[in-house]
Design goal:
A hairpin with a 3-residue loop joins strand 1 and strand 2. The chain is an alpha+beta fold. It contains 50 helices and 26 strands. Helix 14 runs parallel beside helix 21.
């Protein structure tokens, strides 16, 4: 994409040996040569074909997808990555390829759980580039399409491949949802295996101290539902030759050096020493690494091996084998006695041979024979052949390599078994972490194999990129059939073709003993002398060069043959399979084909190729995704971007190859609106006539005469170089326009100067004329002043004379008028006094008549009330008789209970005595039995002794044998005694049996009596229950009697001791008026006929008070469950519930189910969570009821008095009677009623059920509040996603034709938000929700709007633009207007919650940002934003309207320094906001917002007022 047409003033990129590419301005054009003034200050002359155009309109912070670059070429890509790296944007897309530049610093805010939630389900490319986006795309594609995925992470050592792999696995574990396996997640288990694999598979190379020398393919396995079911680690292409041959300054595998630095006891046991004493380690001068302690690494590796499930015995065996390999390397050989034989060179070699045999636990002689001899099995005999010293060394190295390879494979298998694989997994997502392309000064066989791997992967990558290009062209429906795909198959054929490839020729050379690297090189020269990818370097005898996709690499063949040889020696197999160490024997199982003792040739190159084929087969079966990791510098330090180094990695990573493929088709792609905005000035007349973007683009391209372009469905596709041609024409138009503008500006400035001069002359003339006019005016003013003084003096004299005459006339008139007025006043006073005397006389006569009539009425009323009282007394006596009968029945039941209790205690006492007697009798019998048994045993022992003595005597003395009579008698005597003892024993046994029978009988009797006792206890419980019921009935009767007595006392005339009427009734009848209506409603009015009828009806037999209470509760719930509206702005339902609970004294009850019924009713009422009107109604009721409970219950402790109260009855009538007992006089009763009317909400001494109900009610208030708030958030969520970005319009069309291509008004989405807010506000106001709750709802909603808009602004670069800032600012103005209209009563501090987005938008729309300092931004413009948030906004900002610059680099540097200081703090590094979903108010807040006096005029439910049981609500 070199410059085809270069003009003076154009900006281009030219090559530079120091910084790869440098930009400059063309100052001269001479044919094919152009002179460029570089930004560094130097001037260069280059060919026009080697200069690339620069996009001067590119955003200074770069673009997040490089396919959107106007010029997709090498310098453009490099500059874009550098610009983004400078602002800590380390991730960039190239299509669907993610390029990750290692920042060499911690950026924790990019990888927290909140960030993962942002990328979950987001479309690829919608948010900023990130590994989470790649992982999410692969996971979604796997779920939706049912295809396994793979993510290829590549890059050179130190580029961050392992960290990227960790992030991918973290996100997949987050999406897959497998929580733990034995306490650890799959991701943790895989990562815990890294230290072990790094110890045995990583080594120091030229470019990296910890380079992986193997490929790792991590399989995350998923089941049908997309849940993680297992994982496995596959390793490929281990660099086995490194075990035996190491180049300077590299190192061997880490485990060798760790083992040499192990604790002294381990070193002594394994007979190790300094690493420099071992041949496999001292081939390089690099033994130790800076900042790496091998002894600590050894201990850490042992711990990691414990974690992954390798036992201590297996660990010891592994390190024994590693030590044995080191000792093998120190065995040297010399010629033996026989021809072509070899033996250990000296005692040192024999020591190492013996030590290796001990560590392998095999026979020393057998080990020596396996190294120095070969057994050839023929048809007739077995021949043993000796090996010369060189062959013995090769055999030793082959043994070392095969043993190390088997140990590494065993470790991998052990890790996989520890993690747990799922053989039945449905899908998998594989993450490949493999070494990148390598090109050093000295490149040997290892680099050859590694680069072969990268060539194969690059071919796979190229095919994928070409496939993506094809899909893009098909999606846009453009013709792409003539685009050719050129891959690197010729290089692969050169290396691995069979026969005739380099690997085949290498294997062939290794099979001939006399081949050398020089003969091998000559063979290559002859075979590939005409191959375009193969060449022979000048002055080189055995080197060759291959033209790889990443560049030319020259290989040195000196060690190719030695490193490729990999003999599979049968003697080694037999030797180690017979080892006494089960671990070593398990590494080399004896196979059937190994029975013949012949050596088989195998090459590392061939095995490498086979593993590579297996890897590519796995990748081909999956859908690939690519992450290219880049190391910005070799110093491994942050903020350093080395262009040459990065450019080389981009070439090695295949990014440039992907760009080459893109350039083969249509490298420049522009959306129609962007294309018209940029190039509309080339044909403005086309835009004026067209209202269609596609037609406008076609006509514009036809107008400028381009050929070969394509018009897709959404984009314009341009061939390579066409963008530069259009930009050149655009530059010409802009140049001509600039000339016109300059001419107009100069004309304007000249005209402005002329007008200023003319205006100055006019001003001078005006000043002179003004001075003359002022002199004339001064003389005229003095003349006028003299005339005015004369006039004023004459006027004063005339006025003085007039006033003297006037005051004299007024004095005369006032005297006459006063005399007349005094006469009239005297007459009126006399008339008024006469009238007053007459009125007093008439009043006295009327008052006397009224008193006589009143006295007669009172006498009549007293007589009638005495009659009624006697009637009530008779009824009370009858009720007292019924009460006496119930009392007698109660006394009878109490006697029965006492009698049964006495009987039960007697039975218990008898049972206890019997058990004691039985126990004593059993003890006596037991002791007698034991005595008899003891006597029996003693007798038996004595008898045996006597028999033995008799036998001995008979044997000793023959004389005694003759006296037989004495022996027989003794025997008879003993026999008799024995029989007596037997009879005694039998009698004792009979007694024991009899005793046992008696015990059983006694036990049976005791069980029966126990049953009787239990039955008696049951009867007692029943009787007590009945007694309690009777007591309650008696209390009810007493309560009713007390009520009737109180009523009779109220209705009867109350007389003093003197028999006269008390003074209080006379006082109430003062001024001759009856009591007011208010006093009658309070309950102090005299009994009326209606009242008397009610009293008579109450005295009738009633149902149980419990049934009545249940009916009342049912009536209350059936009433309030319906929407019964509001009274004076307060919910009727809440007020009614409170009044009923207060009247029923439910707050003071120890047990009641009223509260449970109310809680169930509220829970069922709010089941429909989508109806905001219904929820608002219940929020109003529950919050108001909660307030009333808070006011009643919070002061309960203060109402307690020091005197002891009588016990409160739990029955309804008992609680009702309590009110009458507490007021002995009618005056106290009237005062209590008056105070109750004055205070609607009264403090009560609440019990536990009431306090629990208050807590449950508070929970319901919070729940309903949260539901309404979340409903509003859910409604606004879709609108907010549309409000953050202004609708795209064609700028050229808007400027010229006066209308855009968009159909919707830009503020339609904001109007939708306003409508939603208004709808909810109206709903809440109609239901009289407390303003404090409305404030909190809208405050949290505005906070949610602030979080969503601000986070979207920081995550999407296309939102950080000037025009988008104006669009969001206009929407915020609508919200501000809404807050003003809603007033502070309802909006509260909602507008302040938008502070983050307001300040961010204010910064976006400010002009001349480059002139603002950091202090002004942080302290004046955006004081609430953190430095991380400011940095991200400043770096993402680009002006799509006026193409102005963002803040200066000094400000960016200041922010970067501050961010570095806070880099260790994860909280300070996070730049996204979190939504607060807590409950922002307490019960006290609610109480302080509602006034108690507001309930004075509230009326209860009309439906209940008609119910006689709820007459207290009236």
């Amino acid at each position: 994409m070199a410059c085809s047409t270069t003009t003076i003033g154009a900006f281009v990129w030219v090559e530079d040996p120091e910084v790869a590419w440098i930009d400059g301005e063309v100052i001269e054009v001479k044919g094919e040569d152009i002179k460029v003034q570089c930004t560094s200050g130097k001037t260069v002359v280059v060919k026009a074909s080697k200069a690339y155009p620069k996009d001067v309109e590119a955003p200074p912070s770069g673009v997040d997808d490089m396919t959107r670059l106007a010029y997709l070429h090498e310098p453009g890509v490099l500059q874009n990555l550098k610009a983004r790296y400078d602002i800590n944007e380390i991730y960039t897309y190239t299509g669907n390829i993610l390029i990750a530049v290692n920042p060499f610093r911690k950026l924790p805010h990019l990888y927290n759980s909140h960030m993962m939630a942002q990328y979950k389900g987001a479309a690829f490319g919608e948010l900023s580039p990130h590994p989470f986006a790649v992982a999410d795309a692969s996971y979604r594609q796997m779920i939706h399409e049912g295809i396994s995925q793979s993510i290829l992470v590549s890059g050179e050592s130190g580029a961050g491949k392992t960290e990227s792999t960790k992030l991918l696995m973290r996100y997949l574990a987050y999406m897959g949802g497998r929580a733990v396996s034995e306490g650890r997640t799959v991701e943790q288990q895989v990562l815990e295996s890294n230290p072990v694999l790094e110890a045995f598979g990583n080594a120091k190379t030229v470019r990296n101290n910890n380079s992986s020398r193997f490929g790792k393919f991590v399989e995350i396995q998923f089941d049908q539902g997309g849940r993680i079911s297992g994982a496995a680690i596959r390793t490929y292409l281990l660099e086995r030759s490194r075990v035996c041959q190491v180049s300077d300054p590299e190192r061997n595998y880490h485990c060798f050096y760790m083992l040499c630095a192990a604790p002294p006891e381990e070193v002594k046991k394994l007979k190790l020493a300094d690493p420099r004493t071992f041949h496999y380690l001292n081939q390089s001068n690099c033994i130790e690494l800076d900042g790496l302690d091998d002894s600590k690494e050894y201990l850490e590796t042992r711990k990691a091996m414990d974690v992954v499930g390798i036992s201590s015995e297996e660990q010891d065996a592994i390190f024994r084998v590693v030590a044995a390999i080191l000792h093998l390397g120190n065995i040297e050989f010399t010629k033996g006695k026989e021809t072509d034989s070899s033996v250990p060179k000296d005692e040192k070699s024999k020591f190492h041979l013996k030590t290796a045999a001990e560590l392998f636990m095999c026979d020393e002689k057998a080990l020596e024979d396996s190294l120095c001899k070969r057994v050839i099995v023929t048809r007739d005999e077995t021949i043993t052949k000796c090996l010369d010293p060189d062959s013995a060394v090769l055999s030793r190295d082959a043994l070392a390599k095969i043993v190390y390879s088997r140990v590494f494979d065993w470790i991998v298998d052990k890790i996989n078994s520890s993690i747990g694989q799922d053989p039945d997994s449905k899908y998998l997502i594989g993450v490949l972490d493999i070494y990148g392309f390598e090109s050093f000064k000295t490149n040997s066989f290892e680099q050859f194999c590694i680069n072969l791997t990268n060539e194969k992967l690059q071919q796979h990558f190229n095919q994928h990129v070409f496939k993506m290009e094809q899909e893009e062209y098909k999606k846009e429906e453009i013709d792409w059939s003539y685009i050719e795909f050129v891959d690197n198959q010729d290089v692969l054929d050169l290396i691995e073709k069979k026969p005739g490839g380099i690997i085949a020729l290498l294997d062939e050379a290794c099979m001939f003993p006399r081949s050398t690297h020089e003969t091998f090189a000559q063979k290559l020269y002859q075979t590939f002398k005409n191959h375009k990818r193969f060449s022979k370097p000048k002055l080189a005898r055995s080197d060759f060069t291959i033209d790889h996709y990443a560049g030319d690499v020259t290989y040195q063949t000196e060690q190719f043959l030695d490193k490729n040889k990999d003999y599979v020696v049968a003697e080694h197999q037999a030797l180690l399979s017979a080892s006494r160490c089960t671990f070593v024997a398990g590494l080399f199982p004896l196979l059937a084909e190994d029975s013949n003792k012949q050596s088989k040739f195998s090459s590392i190159g061939s095995r490498f190729k086979q593993q590579l084929v297996s890897l590519l087969e796995t990748l081909s079966s999956t859908e690939p995704h690519y992450i290219r990791c880049v190391k910005p510098n070799n110093l491994l330090k942050p903020s350093i971007f080395e262009n040459q180094n990065v450019l080389q990695q981009l070439r090695c990573g295949g990014v440039m190859e992907a760009i080459r493929i893109s350039c083969a088709g249509y490298p420049t792609r522009k959306h129609f609106d962007e294309f018209l905005d940029r190039f509309g000035i080339l044909a403005p007349e086309v835009l004026d006539k067209s209202s269609d973007e596609i037609a406008g683009c076609k006509k514009l391209l036809e107008q400028v005469g381009l050929q070969g372009y394509q018009i897709g469905k959404t984009k314009v596709f341009l061939r390579a170089g066409q963008m530069a041609d259009l930009d050149a024409r655009r530059t010409e138009v802009l140049g001509r326009s600039a000339s016109i503008i300059q001419r107009k500006v100069r004309s304007y400035l000249s005209r402005k100067s002329f007008i200023m001069l003319r205006k100055a002359a006019s001003n001078i003339q005006a000043v002179c004329r003004g001075q003359l006019a002022r002199h004339i005016f001064e003389s005229l003013r003095k003349e006028a002043a003299a005339l005015r003084i004369q006039k004023a003096l004459r006027m004063h004299l005339a006025r003085k004379s007039y006033k003297e005459i006037y005051f004299a006339a007024v004095s005369v008139q006032s005297g006459m008028r006063g005399m007349v007025a005094r006469d009239k006043l005297r007459s009126r006073r006399q008339t008024k006094a006469a009238i007053k005397i007459q009125s007093h006389c008439r009043r006295f006569l009327a008052q006397s008549r009224y008193k006589r009539l009143k006295k007669a009425a009172i006498v009549t009323q007293c007589a009638w009330r005495v009659r009624l009282a006697r009637k009530e007394l008779r009824k009370l006596k009858m009720a007292a008789r019924e009460t006496g009968a119930l009392q007698a029945a109660k006394n009878k039941l109490e006697k029965q209970v006492e009698e049964l209790t006495w009987r039960l205690q007697l039975e218990k006492r008898m049972r206890t005595d019997m058990e004691e007697a039985k126990t004593q009798e059993n003890a006596k019998l037991q002791s007698a039995l034991e005595e008899m048994q003891t006597q029996f045993k003693e007798t038996k022992v004595s008898l045996l002794k006597e028999l033995e003595a008799a036998k001995k005597a008979a044997e000793v003395s023959p004389v005694v044998q003759e006296v037989t009579v004495v022996d027989q008698e003794l025997v008879k005597k003993l026999t008799t005694e024995n029989e007596e003892l037997k009879s005694l024993v039998s009698s004792l046994e009979q007694k024991i049996d009899e005793t046992e029978k008696k015990f059983e009988e006694t036990s049976r009797i005791s069980v029966e009596r126990q049953k009787q006792a239990l039955e008696a206890e049951t009867k007692i419980v029943n009787l007590k229950t009945a007694m309690h019921k009777l007591e309650e009935k008696i209390l009810d009767m007493e309560s009713e009697n007390q009520i009737l007595r109180q009523q009779s006392l109220l209705s009867a005339p109350i007389k003093t001791s003197s028999g006269h009427l008390p003074p209080s009734p006379v006082k109430s009848l003062e001024n001759g008026h009856h009591p007011s209506e208010e006093n009658r409603l309070d309950g102090t009015e005299p009994a009326t006929p209606a009242r008397r009828q009610g009293t008579e009806s109450d005295a009738k037999p009633r149902r149980s008070h419990i049934d009545r209470q249940h009916e009342d509760v049912d009536a209350l719930i059936n009433c309030v469950i319906k929407d019964i509206g509001f009274s004076h702005g307060k919910p009727v339902a809440a007020f009614t519930i409170y009044k009923c609970l207060l009247h029923w004294k439910s707050f003071e009850a120890e047990r009641t189910n009223v509260f449970d019924r109310l809680v169930q009713m509220i829970g069922s009422a709010i089941e429909n969570e989508d109806d905001n009107a219904h929820l608002a109604y219940w929020l109003s009721n529950t919050s108001t009821l909660l307030f009333m409970l808070q006011q009643s219950l919070k002061a309960a402790g203060a109402t307690a008095t020091t005197h002891r109260k009588p016990p409160i009855s739990t029955s309804l009538f008992g609680r009702m009677a309590l009110g009458f007992r507490s007021s002995p006089s009618s005056a106290n009763l009237a005062a209590a009623a008056a105070s109750a009317a004055a205070a609607v909400i009264r403090p009560v001494d609440a019990k536990y059920p009431a306090l629990l109900f208050k807590q449950q009610l508070a929970a319901y208030v919070e729940k309903i509040y949260g539901i309404i708030r979340d409903n509003l958030k859910r409604e606004l969520q879709t609108l907010l996603s549309l409000c953050i970005q202004a609708p795209r319009t064609s700028k050229g069309s808007v400027l010229r034709s006066g209308r855009s291509f968009g159909k919707d008004s830009p503020l339609n989405h904001w109007q939708g938000i306003i409508e939603g807010l208004n709808a909810l506000l109206n709903t809440l106001q109609e239901n009289f929700v407390p303003p404090v709750l409305i404030q909190k709802i809208f405050t949290q909603t505005f906070s949610y709007i602030n979080v969503q808009l601000f986070n979207s602004l920081l995550l999407r670069r296309e939102c950080c633009t000037f025009s988008n800032g104006e669009y969001v600012k206009s929407g915020l103005a609508e919200l501000e207007l809404w807050c003003v209209q809603a007033k502070e009563e309802y909006a509260g501090s909602s507008w302040d919650e938008l502070k983050h987005i307001r300040q961010a938008v204010g910064f976006l729309v400010i002009h001349q940002k480059y002139r603002i300092s950091y202090d002004e931004i942080a302290n004046d413009l955006c004081p609430i934003l953190s430095v991380q948030q400011l940095y991200r906004i400043c770096t993402l900002y680009w002006d799509d309207s006026y193409n102005t610059r963002s803040v200066s680099q000094d400000v960016i540097s200041s922010m970067r320094v501050l961010m570095t200081e806070d880099s260790n703090n994860a909280d300070s590094s996070a730049f996204l906001l979190d939504d607060d979903s807590s409950i922002p108010f307490s019960v006290d807040d609610l109480s302080s917002a509602i006034q108690e006096k507001d309930f004075a005029e509230v009326k209860a439910a009309d439906e209940l007022q008609e119910n006689p049981a709820f007459s207290f609500l009236l």
